[in-house]
């Protein structure tokens, strides 16, 4: 009985040993196979880095401002008697816009003119009598003062009538009418806005460290998404004398021609101005940059060796310094050398040493001045 039990235990031990050995061989083979496994290469696009002349420009946001812009208002109170303009039409300096009711003032003018005429007659009579020595000098002075006072009263009422005829102070384009016929206007009530659109100003801010590169007479370019396909040339005409304490920017004002009135006061525009001499830089598409908090980098394609010493096409991550951007391009000032092949798309799925397969049938956009079809 004991012998049979011993043989059975021995047989079980042999079976377990055999199974363990077989499993060990399987695991060992899997580990060896895993160690030698190479993931398939990632499909990417690439571009050979080359130097280009990169203009030293700055793009900022500007605001359009009218050279002359006012809200025409009533100088004196009165009732609107006549409106001679339509909303949105151009006018010239001196054109009549609104006439207020002046019937009472004209009646007062007639009475004052009668008093003036009488004072003139009395003055002429007193002057003759004074010359003949009939009246005293005091009576003559009173007649003179009376005549001057009536002249002044007539001039005052005429000025009042003239001030109730509201004219355009300069040539420009009117806005929307804010008064109606028969409406009573108090002094200062708005009638219509008037803006001079040609020429027109563009105001923008420049960082204080770049203010020294902006001078009166410098040329810049203005574009707007609302006026697609058109670039306006402007010239710097004034720089502010102080730096804004909140933004540390200095305000710059430039003047540009706007003959068709496409640019309106208050519009936001893009202003591109030169801030020095152009320089050489490596230009790459924006899609080639891997942005990260610890630093921006690109992947350079080169020949690498695996663990067995075999050569393959892989990537090397390289940190770079970015200077500026324009359109779809960025300027690289350090980290990439001319002639190196750089990955331009697919960088999000790469790691240092990853194998790649280049397929340049479809390339990412690399235009310094793109014009999207929906713009």
Decide which structural class fits the backbone: alpha+beta
User: What is the radius of gyration computed over CA atoms, rounded to a whole number of angstroms?
Assistant: 43 Å
How many E-type strands?
23
CATH class of one domain: Mainly Beta
Shape: rod-shaped
CATH topology of one domain: conserved putative lor/sdh protein from methanococcus maripaludis s2 fold
Main β sheet profile? 6 strands, antiparallel, barrel
Helix and strand string, N-terminal first? Answer: HEEEEEEEHHEEEEEEEEEEEEEEEE
Distance between the termini: 96 Å
Oligomer: single chain
Q: What is the tally of helical segments? A: 3
The helix fraction, in percent, is 10-25%
Q: Can you walk through the features of this model?
A:
By secondary structure, the protein is an alpha+beta fold. Among the domains are: 42-54 and 279-358, conserved putative lor/sdh protein from methanococcus maripaludis s2 fold (Beta Barrel), CATH 2.40.420; 59-67 and 199-274, Elongation Factor Tu (Ef-tu), domain 3 (Beta Barrel), CATH 2.40.30; 102-163, Helix Hairpins (Orthogonal Bundle). It has 3 helices and 23 strands. The strands form 5 sheets. The protein has a 6-stranded antiparallel β-barrel. Strand 18 and strand 19 form a beta hairpin. It is rod-shaped, with a radius of gyration of 43 Å.
Task: Outline the secondary-structure elements.
Blueprint: H1 2-35, E1 42-48, E2 51-54, E3 57-66, E4 69-73, E5 78-83, E6 90-91, E7 96-100, H2 103-132, H3 137-163, E8 165-167, E9 172-174, E10 184-185, E11 190-195, E12 200-207, E13 219-224, E14 227-243, E15 249-256, E16 268-274, E17 279-285, E18 297-305, E19 311-319, E20 321-326, E21 329-334, E22 341-345, E23 356-358
Helix pairs in contact: 2-3
């Amino acid at each position: 009985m004991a012998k049979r039990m011993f043989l059975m235990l021995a047989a079980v031990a042999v079976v377990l040993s055999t199974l363990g050995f077989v499993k060990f061989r399987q695991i060992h083979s899997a580990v060896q196979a895993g160690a030698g496994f190479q993931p398939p290469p990632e499909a990417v696009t690439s571009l050979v880095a080359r130097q280009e002349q990169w203009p030293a420009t700055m793009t900022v946001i500007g605001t359009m401002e009218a050279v002359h812009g006012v809200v025409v208002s009533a100088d004196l109170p009165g009732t609107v008697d006549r409106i001679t303009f339509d909303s949105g039409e151009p006018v010239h300096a001196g054109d009549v816009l609104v006439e207020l009711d002046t019937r009472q003032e004209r009646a007062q003018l007639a009475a004052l003119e009668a008093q003036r005429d009488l004072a003139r007659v009395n003055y002429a009579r007193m002057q003759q009598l004074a010359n003949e020595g009939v009246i005293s000098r005091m009576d003559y002075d009173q007649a003179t003062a009376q005549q001057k006072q009536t002249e002044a009263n007539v001039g005052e009422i005429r000025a009042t009538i003239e001030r109730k005829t509201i004219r355009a102070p300069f040539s420009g384009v009117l806005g929307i009418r804010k008064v109606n016929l028969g409406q009573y206007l108090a002094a200062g009530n708005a009638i219509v806005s008037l803006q001079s659109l040609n020429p027109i100003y563009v105001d923008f801010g420049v960082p204080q460290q770049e203010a020294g590169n902006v001078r009166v007479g410098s040329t810049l370019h203005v574009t707007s998404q609302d006026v697609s396909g058109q670039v306006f040339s402007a010239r710097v005409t004034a720089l502010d004398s102080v730096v804004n304490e909140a933004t540390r920017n200095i305000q710059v004002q430039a003047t540009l021609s706007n003959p068709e009135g496409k640019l309106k006061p208050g519009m936001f525009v893009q202003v591109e101005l030169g801030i020095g001499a152009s320089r050489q830089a490596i230009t790459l598409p924006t899609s080639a940059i891997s942005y990260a908090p610890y630093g921006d980098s690109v992947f350079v394609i080169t020949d690498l060796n695996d663990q067995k010493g075999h050569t393959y096409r892989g990537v090397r991550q390289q940190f770079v310094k970015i200077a500026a951007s324009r359109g779809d391009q960025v300027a690289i000032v350090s980290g990439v050398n001319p002639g190196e092949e750089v990955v331009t798309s697919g960088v999000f799925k790469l790691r240092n040493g990853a194998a790649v397969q280049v397929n340049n049938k479809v390339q990412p956009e690399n235009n310094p001045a793109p014009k999207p079809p929906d713009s």
